[in-house]
Amino acid sequence: MSSAPLTGRRAFVTGGSRGIGAEIVRRLAAEGAAVAFTYSASSAHADKLVGELTSNGATVLAIQADAADREQSIAAVERAAAELGGLDIVVNNAAVAHIAPIDDFPAEEFDRLVNINIGSMYWTTRTAVKHLGDGARIINIGSINADRIPGPGLSVYGMTKGAVASFTRGLARDLGDRGITVNNVQPGPIDTDANPDQGDFAESLKAVTTQGRYGHTTDVASFVSFLAGPESGYITGANLNVDGGFTV
Ligand code: NDP
């Protein structure tokens, strides 16, 4: 096996400027893939990541596209496919959370979560499918909250991540005859801006894991890179936890 198993592959990652998405971009690029990724508003983190990776010789493209917006999601995929000359790997990572009980959940937050966590995944995938060759990889980033809700206020977020799991199963059936695999990686608590390991809920979440700690973005990215690679071809339609034992 080459030390750069993704050489020649072209990847598209949503929400790649920070957190888990940025680490996935880093890892795929380090393994030889050309990578396009999206971010939402400020380009500061995206520019820094592009600078870091291009100085290492990688081909990396940052695209501003609000995942809440259908047209921007579609246009981002089309631009990535045009500039990279096609796509082989799609990682649907962009998502947002809002924690509130159902009777106090703002309507605009409900729409935002559904549009980003579900809508972006659907429009990105639907647009990307026509650019994918046989044997391509689609990797969705769901959440352990599809399977386990450790406290109140997470019903809407959990609902969107349940949709990721179901979409993954259906899509694996739709695309199986092209040798395209579709998997859902479900992180447990991972230290990022969205869920810092010193945040308000951190201690209670650590207590649910078997090791009493948060995971690192690299724990998720290394697994995503395996799923993106040539040795994962018989894994598809699976919901795969990287969660420190959150559900055991
Ligand atoms: P972060 O908030 O740290 O990073 C989110 C990334 O998504 C950023 O790059 C951000 O870009 C981008 N993004 C957010 N909203 C949009 C938007 N509207 N349009 C385009 N890009 C957007 O999140 P995490 O890294 O923690 O989470 C990544 C994934 O992992 C999500 O799917 C999340 O649900 C999942 N997950 C995370 C867990 C955790 O504990 N951290 C646990 C379980 C699942 P920008 O810089 O422009 O804001």
TrEMBL record:
<dbReference type="Pfam" id="PF13561">
    <property type="entry name" value="adh_short_C2"/>
</dbReference>
<dbReference type="InterPro" id="IPR020904">
    <property type="entry name" value="Sc_DH/Rdtase_CS"/>
</dbReference>
<keyword id="KW-0560">Oxidoreductase</keyword>
<dbReference type="InterPro" id="IPR002347">
    <property type="entry name" value="SDR_fam"/>
</dbReference>
<feature type="domain" description="Ketoreductase">
    <location>
        <begin position="9"/>
        <end position="188"/>
    </location>
</feature>
<dbReference type="GO" id="GO:0016491">
    <property type="term" value="F:oxidoreductase activity"/>
</dbReference>
<protein>
    <submittedName>
        <fullName>Oxidoreductase</fullName>
    </submittedName>
</protein>
<dbReference type="InterPro" id="IPR057326">
    <property type="entry name" value="KR_dom"/>
</dbReference>
<comment type="similarity">
    <text>Belongs to the short-chain dehydrogenases/reductases (SDR) family.</text>
</comment>
<dbReference type="InterPro" id="IPR036291">
    <property type="entry name" value="NAD(P)-bd_dom_sf"/>
</dbReference>
